[in-house]
Write a structure and sequence with these properties.
With about 400 residues, this protein is mainly α. It has 19 helices and three strands.
Amino acid sequence: MPIIPLLLVALGGFGGWLIGRNNPRHKFFAKEKDQFSKDYFVGLNYLLNEQPDEAVDVFIKMLDVDNNTVETHMALGSLFRKRGETNRAIRIHQNIIARPNLGKDLRLQALQELGRDYMVAGVYDRAERLFLESVETNGPHRVQSLHYLVDIYEREKDWYAALEMAQQLQRIAKLDAQPAIAQYYCEIIEDPRNQLTFNKVSEHLRDAYNADRHCLRAGLLKAKQESEGGDDSEAIHLYQKMLHQDPDFAPIILPLLEKAYVKQSNEKGFIDYLYKSLDKITRPAVMVKLAEKLETVNGPQAAIQFLQQQLHESPSLQAIESLITLQAELQTHDATQEQATMLKQYLHKVNAAKPKYLCDHCGYQGRKMHWLCPSCRRWGEVKPSVGD
C-alpha cells in the first residue's frame, strides 16, 4: 500500500480529533490528549517502518465516532472501498452503525455505505437487506438504494424483483425506466425456469410493448411466437419492420426472416425482398445473404456477377470473402485455385478476428450478443458490428 494515501488517513485521524475538540466533550478530549498523541506517533512509526496494515488499524482506532466525526469515518470507509479493501470499509461502516446516539440520517447513510461495501465484495444478500431497510424508511437515500437494488437483482438475474424495483423508481423518482422494464419482461419470457404458457408470454409481450413500443427484442420474441404458432406471414411482417427499424441487427434478423420464408416455400419472395432492401439497407449482411441465395437458385456465376457489381458501390471485407470463395470454387487451374483458397483463408481470419458485437455507449467488444452490456450495464446498447 503506498505511503501517501496512508498519510492522508493519518491526517484524517488528526482532523477528526480536532473536530472533536470543538464539541461539548472538549474536556474529555483534553484528558485523552496524551494517549491520542502517543497513538498518533505509534501509527506514524508503523508507516515509517513500512507496516501499513498496523498503521491503518491504529488510525482507525484513534477516530472516536460521534455526529461530528462520522463524515470523516464515511470518507475513510469510502477510500478503503475504492482501493479494494472491502474488509476494512465494512468494519468502519459497521462501527458507525453500532453507535447508539447516531442521528437517523447519518445511520441511513452509513447503512447505504455498508451496503455498497457488500456489493463490491460480492455479498449481494447482505447488501440487499441493507438497501431494503433504507428503502422502507422512506428517507433521503431511498431512491439511490432502489438503484442499487436494481443493480443487484440484474446481476442475480432475479427479473421479477428488478421489475418491481424499477417500477418503484418510476413512481417515486419520476425516472424513465420504461426501456429497462421492457427488457425485464423479455428476460422473464426467455428464462426457461419460468415455463410460461402461451397466454402468459402474450401478456408479458404486451407489457413490454406498453413500456417501450420501440423494443426490438420484444419484436423478435413476438415474431418468434407468431412463427411457432403457424402465422409465418405475420412473423415476416414483424421481421421486416424490425430490419428497417434498426438495420444494424441484419445479421440476427435475416436468418430468422429467411426461415419464415422457407416455411412458406417462398424463397423467391425472400430474394425479391433482399433486392428491394439493398437501396435502403446498405449492410454487408444483406449483400452476402443475397449472394448466397443467388448461388443456390441461379448458380455461382450469378452470385459472382452480383457481388462484383455491389462491391464497386459498397466495398466490404465480408462480401470480398464471399466473392473469393465463389471464384475459388470455379477455378480449374490448380495454382490459381490454390492462390484463391489461400486468400480466402486470410480474409476469413481477418473477419473472424473482428468483434461480432459492439456497445454503442462504452465500446465493449464481444463475440456474444448481450442485451445488457457487461461493461457499462446499459440496456439495448450492444449491437452486431456492422463490419467493413
